[in-house]
Every structure is written in structure tokens, then in C-alpha cells.
Specification:
- The chain has 421 residues and is mostly helical.
- The protein has 22 helices and no strands.
- The longest helix is centred in the last third of the chain and has 30 residues.
- It is globular and about 75 Å long.
- The chain starts with 9 loop residues before the first helix and ends with a helix.
- The relative contact order is 0.12.
């Protein structure tokens, strides 16, 4: 990556964006997303915000103020609902915006590849694969969850981190700006804090020996500004819920749903348990939440889950092993789809190895994402939505491997006729 970012390959990026957007809008129409109203927790909180200006009522009956979801996305959705209502018009807007954000992420990959010195061919391979590979359909096009926006934000933050590595400019002003954007991203998706931690560690490998004082100051300013941006959320939670939760307050219910008698490794295998015990599905459970309070009820879910884990260590370990495996190797709808899903991470590992020799900082940053982002999802119920925010890293590294293979084949083809002579 040069000291100044190369110009965006506009024609290539616009082409990828248009094709990716058209493909996604086609999926919206083909699956009739605008007439589906699943009303998950995020959407219910957004509807409450639209109706009464409060982040509240995520369950099947009103339960009061909630910290079940971080604030930015339900406020964003709530604004859509307030303007367009909660019917088909709002779904059209949600699907259009989410599809556009997902297409934008695809269009950013050709530029990213050029920035890394990988060439436009690699960038276009990454862009086309991202355009047509959708690892979680509803997440990518419907907008009931924040992951599409979080994944696109992560690409931008990745480029910013690369820029710092290349320029070696550890200025407080740059740290403050980056801290501001990280703070907003954490209010959108708090689980990306581990990605920030990984980026800081990769930076430490580069800068602690060369410029330790400047790097510590840079990280301190970044962290302080990010904390200031995030701070209204825990302050609100302290006032409204009695506890300064900075992320989201659903650890107990997630743990209980993941570890119990008869637990399966994925969401779909636990459907009966969720139907009977989750306040989103079961009004009688939601009434108990309202009676004791959201946080108290969530806290009460932890001891039974921990007791089950202690009493069934083998079963718990098997669940974790299966969730770890399927995070990287998700199930497909048929044999061909499964083969595709499983080939992507395998090829991407080869691509990461090749990338290390082309752009060491980029390879280490991607490796840090792979190491620090997934562990939480090795524990909880598997869902295709959980790997979605980092799928773009798999597309980029897979493109590196495929581009290298094309170069090798071309080189052998050029040598063949000469050898025959």
C-alpha cells in the first residue's frame, strides 16, 4: 500500500456495485422479503423507538426499557419506521438500503486490492465473489440486523489501519478521528471490540520497537475518544436499567439457549426450546421479564446454564467443537452447496499465506480478525449471521489464491510453446 492511497478504480467498483445491487434486489423480489414481517428483537426495539422514542419492549409483550441491542441500529430502523410506517413501505426502504450497503462493501474490494498492490484482477475476483456469494441471505438484504452495516464499516476501518501501518504517522489527531469512528462502530456492533484489540496488537508488533512512546499515546487517544463516543450508552443504561452496560444485556439468555438438556449446536436444532423458553416467542416468559426486570431475568439464566456445563462437560465440549467447526465450515443446502461453503475457508487460508509475502501488515490484520472475532461464536448457537461480518476477508484472501493460480497457469502456458521449440 503506497504512502498515498491510489485512486479508486471507479469503473470497476461501480460495475461491481451495480451488479451486486441488482443481484440483491432480485433476491429481495424472488424471496418476497418486503411481505415478510418476522419482528425479531432488534425490530421490536426499533418499533418502540418509533412509537414512543424509547429503546424498549424487545419481547412478545411490552417489558420496558431494554439494553438487548446496542443503540445505533434500532434508532436507525426506528427512524425508518417513524417516517414510512411499519408495513410494506418500510420493508422496501430497509431492503433497498441494506442491499445498497452490502453492494457497497463488494465494490470496495477492488479498491482495497489495488491499495494492497495486489492488482485489479485480484480485486475484481474479490468483488465478483462478494457480489454473488451471500453467506446469510436475510442478513445481507433485509436489514433486520446490523451485520450488513457492521461488515461494511469493518472494511473501512481495515483500510484505515492499513493506512497507519504504511504511513507510520501516529498523530494524535488521526488517533482521535479513528477513535470516533471506532466508537460509532462499537455502538453499532460491540462484538467488534475484539477486532479493535487485534488491530492494536498487530500495530504493537510494528511500532512498539520503533516508536513505543508515540504508539502508546496513539492507542491511548484512540481508546479515550472511542470510550467517550460510547459513553452515552452505558450512562443511559445506568439511569434506565440500574447498570452501566456498554454493549448489550443478553448474555444470560444466549448462554441458557446454548447450553441446556437436549441442546443442539445450531439455532434451528433448538427451535423447540426457544419456542417454549424465549420471551420473544412465549408471552408468559415475557411477563416474568416484566415482573423482575430485563437485567435481573437475564442474570437468572446464567446459573442453570453453568450448572449444566459443569454437570455435562463432555456434551458441552462437543457443542463447542461443533460450533467452532461450523463457524468456518457452515452446512449447505445440498452436497454442491456444502462443497462450495467448505472450499472457501480452505482456499482463503492458502490466500492468507500468499498475502503475507505480498503485504505483511494486511495479512496480519486479517489473521487477527480470524483469531479474535470468532471465539464468542464458538460458544453460542450457530447461525449463518455470525460469520457474516468477516466474510469479506474470506473473499479477499480467496481471490489472492485464485489470482495466484491463474498467474501460475498462464506462466506455464507461455513456457510450454517455448519448451516445444
Amino acid at each position: 500500500m503506497p504512502r498515498t492511497l491510489p485512486p479508486v478504480p471507479w469503473r470497476a467498483s461501480i460495475l461491481v456495485f451495480v451488479v451486486a445491487l441488482v443481484f440483491r434486489l432480485g433476491c429481495v423480489v424472488a424471496t418476497d422479503q418486503i411481505h415478510q414481517f418476522p419482528r425479531k428483537e432488534m425490530v421490536k426495539i426499533a418499533m418502540a423507538f418509533a412509537q414512543k422514542g424509547e429503546l424498549a419492549d424487545p419481547f412478545s409483550v411490552p417489558t420496558g426499557p431494554s439494553a438487548l441491542a446496542p443503540p445505533i441500529y434500532p434508532i436507525f430502523l426506528g427512524t425508518i419506521f417513524r417516517v414510512f410506517g411499519t408495513g410494506v413501505a418500510a420493508e422496501v426502504v430497509k431492503c433497498l438500503l441494506t442491499s445498497a450497503v452490502s453492494a457497497l462493501r463488494c465494490a470496495m474490494l477492488p479498491w482495497l486490492a489495488v491499495c494492497l498492490g495486489l492488482g485489479l484482477r485480484t480485486g475484481m475476483l474479490a468483488g465478483w465473489m462478494s457480489a454473488f456469494y451471500i453467506g446469510a441471505l436475510a442478513t445481507d438484504i433485509k436489514g433486520d440486523w446490523a451485520e450488513a452495516y457492521a461488515a461494511t464499516a469493518m472494511v473501512g476501518l481495515f483500510i484505515a489501519a492499513l493506512r497507519i501501518h504504511e504511513s507510520s504517522q501516529l498523530k494524535p489527531r488521526a488517533a482521535a478521528v479513528l477513535g470516533f469512528w471506532w466508537g460509532l462502530t462499537l455502538l453499532l456492533s460491540p462484538n467488534l471490540l475484539t477486532v479493535l484489540g487485534g488491530f492494536v496488537l498487530v500495530g504493537a508488533l510494528r511500532f512498539l520497537k520503533e516508536r513505543p512512546r508515540q504508539y502508546v499515546q496513539f492507542v491511548a487517544v484512540l481508546g479515550l475518544v472511542a470510550a467517550l463516543v460510547v459513553s452515552p450508552w452505558p450512562i443511559r443504561n445506568e439511569i434506565r436499567l440500574g447498570r452501566p452496560i456498554w454493549s448489550k444485556g443478553n448474555f444470560g439468555v444466549v448462554l441458557a439457549t446454548s447450553f441446556h438438556s437436549g441442546a443442539a449446536w445450531d439455532v434451528y436444532g433448538n427451535e423447540d426450546y426457544i419456542q417454549q423458553n424465549n420471551p420473544t416467542r412465549q408471552p408468559s416468559v415475557a411477563l416474568r421479564v416484566r415482573a423482575v426486570g430485563e437485567l435481573a431475568w437475564d442474570d437468572a439464566q446464567v446459573p442453570p446454564a453453568m450448572q449444566w456445563i459443569r454437570s455435562n462437560p463432555g456434551s458441552a465440549a462437543k457443542l463447542v467443537a461443533l460450533r467452532t467447526f461450523h463457524f468456518w465450515f457452515p452446512p449447505g443446502r445440498n452436497v454442491a452447496h456444502t462443497a462450495l461453503e467448505w472450499s472457501i475457508p480452505l482456499v482463503s487460508m492458502i490466500g492468507l499465506y500468499l498475502l503475507y509475502f505480498k503485504h505483511r501488515a494486511a495479512a496480519l490484520l486479517i489473521l487477527s480478525i480470524w483469531l479474535f472475532y470468532p471465539p464468542l461464536y464458538y460458544i453460542v448457537l450457530w447461525s449463518s449471521r455470525y460469520r457474516y461480518p468477516i466474510n469479506w476477508t474470506l473473499m479477499l484472501t480467496t481471490a489472492v489464491a485464485l489470482s495466484h493460480a491463474i498467474s501460475v497457469v498462464k506462466a506455464r502456458g507461455e513456457l510450454g510453446p517455448r519448451g516445444a521449440q
